[in-house]
Amino acid sequence: MKALFFKAAVFSICLAIAGTGAVPSAGGEPCDGTYGSGPNRFVLATGSPGELGLVKALADVFTARTNTTLCWKKAGSGESLKMLKEKTADVIMGHSPDAEKKAVAEGWAANHTLIGSNEFFIVGPATDPAGIANTSSAVEAYRKIAETKAKFFSRGDNSGTHKKELQIWAKAGVTPSGDWYVVTKQFMIATLRMADSERGYFMTDSSTWVAEKKNLKNLKVLLKGDKILVNVYHGLCQPPGSTPGAEWAAKFIAFVASDEGQNIIRGFGKDLHGEGLYNDAAYAKQFE
C-alpha cells in the first residue's frame, strides 16, 4: 500500500510539472528558458543576455547542431558564480572579471573566455535634478547625485551591475544610504522600469537600454563613455568531469568564442532595434 501511495504521489508531481510547462534544471529548480530537446543537458546561468534573448540566439544554433538541451537560469554575475561553485550551473556568462579570475585560481571554474562587451549608461529624468549631464565622469555624477539626494535606484543584488555601482560609489567617497537610495533586489529590466516610473537615476547596461527605451517615458541617457562604465563579458564553466554537463558547457563556450558565435553576438538586436546590443570579443579585448 505504501509503495502504491509513493508511486501515485510521484506521478501527481510529474503531472503538475508537465501541466505548468516548467522544466527542472540540474539544481532541481525550473529553468527560465529551455532551448533544444536533446538528451545531453547543461545549465547556463546569466542575467541580461538571457532576458534580452542573446542566450536563445546562441543556444538555438548550438543545441540543434549538438543534440543538446540548454537550461537557462536567470541570475546576476554574483549568483551565477555561486551556482557554478555549488555545481548547480555548468556554465555562466558574467561580467565580474576579478571574481571570475579568483574562481579559476581556486580551481572550481575553468575556461575563462572573453566573449564580448557592452557598456553602462547612467540614465535619469530629463529634468536632471542632480545636474549630472554636465559632468565628465561617473564618479563625479554619483557624487552629485548623493549631494543633492536625488532618487537613485540600485539593484542591490551582488550582480556585476551592483558591484560596478559600488566601485563607483567607493571612488566617489560616498556610502549611499537614506530615502533617496532605493534598493530593488530586482534584475535590470525591472529596476529600469521602476526608475522610469519614479523618475529616478539608474545605471543600466546599454543593451537593455536599446531594447527597452521605446517603453520608457521619463528617462534619458545623461552620461556614457567613461572608461569605468565599460562592461566586459566572459564565459566560465565547470572543470572537466565536475558535472554531467561540463563537457557540453566547455563546448558551448568554444562555440560562443568561435567566428560563428561572434557573428551572432555582433548582429544580435539589429533586426529589432536598428543596432546591435553587444560588441564582440575583438572589440572588448582593448578593455581587458
UniProtKB/TrEMBL annotation:
Signal peptide (residue range): 1-18
Family matches, as InterPro entries: ABC-Tungstate_binding, PBP_domain
Domain of life: Bacteria
Domain PBP, chain residue ranges per copy: 35-260
Keywords from the named record: Signal
Protein name, as recorded: ABC transporter, periplasmic substrate-binding protein, putative
